[in-house]
Amino acid sequence: TVDVGAPQLSMHSIREMTSTQALEHYLVFFQGFYKNFKQVHNSIEH
Predict the structure, then answer these.
(1) pLDDT digits (tens, 9 = 90+) for 1-46
(2) Rounded CA gap, 41 and 1, in Å?
(3) C-alpha–C-alpha distance, residues 44 and 32, integer Å
(4) What is the pTM of this model?
(5) What DSSP designation does 5 have?
(6) Whether the Cβ atoms of residue 29 and residue 4 lie closer than 8 Å to each other
């Protein structure tokens, strides 16, 4: 498994752990991942 996403601690503000630029990186990553999901899925050894 792969754990992806912005780190977040319950006792701290999300602003302490991530930045607005990180959110843009996640958006681009997930858009590309789901746009190419079939190819990604087929490349994984089952």
Answers:
(1) 666 766 666 555 555 566 678 788 889 999 999 999 999 899 988 7
(2) 13
(3) 16
(4) 0.54
(5) S
(6) yes
